[in-house]
Amino acid sequence: MANPSAVCNGHLHYHQKQNNLLKSGISKKNGMMKGIKKNGVSNGSLYKKPFIEHFEQAPMYVAVFTFLSFGVGSVFGYLRDFMRAWGLEKRNIATEREQQKDFVPLYQDFENFYSRNLYMRIRDNWNRPICSVPGPQFDLMERVTNDYNWTFRFTGRTIKNVINMGSYNYLGFAETDANALKTVTKELEKYGTGICSTRQEMGTLDKHVELEKLVATFLGVEDAMVFGMGFATNSMNIPALVGKGCLILSDELNHTSLVLGARLSGATIRIFKHNNTQSLESLLKDAIAYGQPRSHRAWRKIIILVEGIYSMEGSIVRLPEIVSLKKKYKAYLYLDEAHSIGAVGATGRGVVEYFGMNPDDVDVLMGTFTKSFGAAGGYIAGKKDLVDFLRTHSHSAVYATSMCPPVAEQIIRAMKCLMGLDGTTQGLQRVRQLGRNTRYFRQRLHEMGFIIYGNDDSPVVPLLLFMPGKIGAFSGHMLEKNIGVVVVGFPATPLTESRARFCVSAAHTREMLDTVLNALDEVGDFLLLKYSRYSKAAHPELYEETRFELED
Amino acid sequence: VDIKSMKNYLYWLYCQFELITCACLMEPWEKLLFYSFNIALLVMMTYTAYLFIPAHISMAFQFFLHVLGNQPENTVSIVK
Question: Which sequence ranges are marked TM in the entry (chain A) (predicted)?
Answer without folding.
Answer: 58-79
